[in-house]
Amino acid sequence: MTGTPKNDLIKISDNISVTAYRTICILNLLLNKPSNEEEISLHLKEQSLNNKNLSSDTIYIYLNTLKAVGSQICRPCKTNNHKYVLKNHPFMLKLNDNDLKSLIQIRKYISNLKNWKFILDVEKLFDIIQDNLIIESKKKFEKLRDTSWRYPLTQKIIDTIQKLESHAENQNKLEVVYSSPVNGIKNIKIKPEEIFYENGVFYVYIVNLSVNEAQYLRVDRINSFKLLENYSQSVFELPEIEPVQYKLKGASLYYFIPGENESIISKTEDEMIIEEKITNKFKFYQKVLSYGNDCTIIKPLSFQKEMINKLKVMLDIYK
Amino acid sequence: MQNKSKISSTAYKVLILMKLLNEENLNLQEISQFFSNQKDVSTPLSKEVILKYLNTLKASGYKISKPSFSNDYRYELLKAPYLINLSKDDLITIVKLEYFIENLFLKELDNSLKNILNKMDKFLPEETVDDYKRIKKSLCGNNTFDLNIFDYSEYAEMIHKFEVYCVEAQRIQITFKIPYEESKKTITLEPKELNYKEDKVFISGYNPLNNENQDINLQYITDTKQLPTKSKNTRSSSPVIFKLKGRLATTYSPYEGEKIYNDQDDYIKVYTYTEEKNNLLKRLLKYGDDCEILYPAEIREKIKETIFKTLNNYKQIGEINSKTF
User: Fold this and answer.
1) How much is the average pLDDT of A81-87?
2) Is A112–B197 a contact, with Cβ atoms under 8 angstroms apart?
3) CA separation (Å) from A6 to A45, A66, A88, A270, B51?
4) pLDDT score for B175
5) Which of A4, A72, B20, B156 could be bridged to A87 by S-S, CB 3.0 to 4.6 A?
6) Measured over all CA atoms, what is the biggest interatomic distance in chain A, rounded to whole angstroms?
7) CATH pick for B153-230 out of 3.40.50.300, 2.30.30.100, 3.30.1360.120, 3.40.50.720
8) Is residue A235 assigned to a domain?
9) Please, which pLDDT band fits residue B319 given cuts at 50, 70 and 90?
10) Of the candidates A158, A160, A242, which has an alpha carbon nearest to the alpha carbon of residue A206?
11) What is the pLDDT, as a whole number, of residue B322?
């Protein structure tokens, strides 16, 4: 922020508060960069009405005045190169409780989009907004953001997502150190395919090179990974899985939207036959179970048997 | 010697004035009123003193608009002392965000976002504001948004109506007809929020008569009446309690309105308060034999019945029937 040119300032000096003018000059300087006493003095000399040097005591009064309105100014010391550093001040963006609530609501709606890139872009924007809020709003926003995520979205997760996406694009193979909730920490050789976001969690869809199987891993459980430079298995193809057919009826008919690997084989007013090329059995059974008695697997037999076994075990719980 | 507590009273008041104008536009009377309510300001500020303070801010390089009809006769600090740096990518995100909210047809939320962006405006350097306008014109002109938003325009009017009910905490009566059910239903609802699932929009709320949370698809609503009572938002419905074991017990993170009680090593108990019962049942069925509903008895019975009926679906397939049952 540049003040009024010196000559013009002299003309209006009777109509301004010189002390306040000088204090704001220091504020503007510290907003721009940390400064030591000498630099502050020089800046005031350049910006102010006369050329005389101001005493240290006077500069301290100005700095104390800035602190009195709520600024946090670090004292000069070795760690800050003996400069005054403006750590916080009350001239930042102020958002009220309704504004903050609206931002959280907006994020909730965005998370339904399943567009993980946009989710991360908005998070980055929210980080900037948070960093630039006055201290009271900042604390509230930070708390609201933390409590509204089912899983905390850390910088490490964001970095991992971005790197995995780049490896997926370049069709690289990786060895990841994965913290499995069942088997503990283990190393897995993978080919990342794509990132996806579901129910508040970021996943990476992978091909597990050791077992030739399509799987998905939770990004927050990936501790680290390294590039497999000369992995011998150069071309990988997913094993062929016989398509599964299932029948839907009742209320589920009205909510059904075919997924990427699903196609509607036949449709009447009362029922629908869907064929799905399954890439992940676990997810398939989860989905089919969620339809309840509106859904019946038609073929293949192996899937029907497995479903029956699952249902029997579930029913046993309630006996 | 340095006197830590000594400050300049005038500079203090000018800085306070700058802080005030940074937060909102004010007229002379409001400024005067503010200072007269401050304990640390000994004498009321005259109009002349306030004008002198405003001149000091102007002399320091801050642009302050003159009171006029367009700004409701208030002083407005046109640029904040502190400016926020936004990259072009951040500006694209803002434009996309505006487009997204606009297309949900939530007018109140849309206005809130606009209000927030207006507040941010004075914190952005002029060139950033110009970049934002250019990006908005370019993206909106070419309609190059890759957000895959469903078209909710047919529900626009209803969405807005329900949004107002939610904001005003207004109890309503909804009549709806679900295609696979024979007759219409009329319920009383304390609407909480609108939810978007794929191409459908739901009004979610609390039904005080059956003490349940309900989601109604806007598509099936035939009539809505505003009731002369306010929603009693403090009252929550009784919880559904379920037990999770195995992998789920160690990895489960609570959804909105859920609490976890971790009193055993091999399982956790989850208390859920807000999720609509049918949606909750669908979700809990997904968890397979890692999940058991404990309370209330009718929900426990309902899931048992659903599992039994699902198992019965396979009785129709004779070959499997003989082999597996």
Assistant:
1) 94
2) yes
3) 10, 23, 29, 84, 21
4) 96
5) A72
6) 95
7) 2.30.30.100
8) no
9) very low
10) A160
11) 45
* Judgement on whether residues A83 and A102 belong to the same structural domain of the protein: no
Give the integer Cα–Cα distance in Å for B32 and B50.
8
* Res. A6: pLDDT tops 70: no
From the CA of A19, how many Å to the nearest CA of chain B?
A: 6
Clarify whether residues A212 and A261 are in a common domain.
no
Sign of CA dihedral A169, A173, A175, A178: positive
* Spatial distance between the Cα atoms of A85 and B68, rounded to a whole number of angstroms: 39
Across the interface, of B18, B292, B308, the residue whose CB is closest to A91 is: B18
Burial A206-216 (b: 16+ CB within 10 A, else e): bbbbeeeebbb
Q: What local confidence, expressed as pLDDT, does residue B313 receive?
A: 93
A105 shares a domain with A53: no
Domain identity same for A62 and A114 = no
Q: Does A209 fall in a domain?
A: yes
Which residues in A lie closer than 8 A to residue B86 (C-beta atoms)? 128
Q: Is the minimum CB–CB distance between B158 and chain A shorter than 8 Å?
A: no
Contact A61 B198 (CB under 8 A): no
Does B180 sit within 8 Å of A250, measured CB to CB? yes
- State how far the Cα of A168 lies from the Cα of A46, in Å rounded to an integer: 56
Domain holding A117, by residue range, is 97-148
Q: What is the pLDDT of residues B213-234, one digit of tens each?
A: 889 999 999 999 999 988 876 5
Q: What mean pLDDT value characterizes chain B?
A: 88
A42-67 pLDDT per residue, tens:
998 888 766 677 889 999 999 999 99
Report the topology of domain B9-77: Arc Repressor Mutant, subunit A (1.10.10)
Enumerate residues 207 to 236 of chain B having a beta carbon within 8 A of any beta carbon in chain A: none
Q: What is the mean pLDDT of residues A2-27?
A: 80
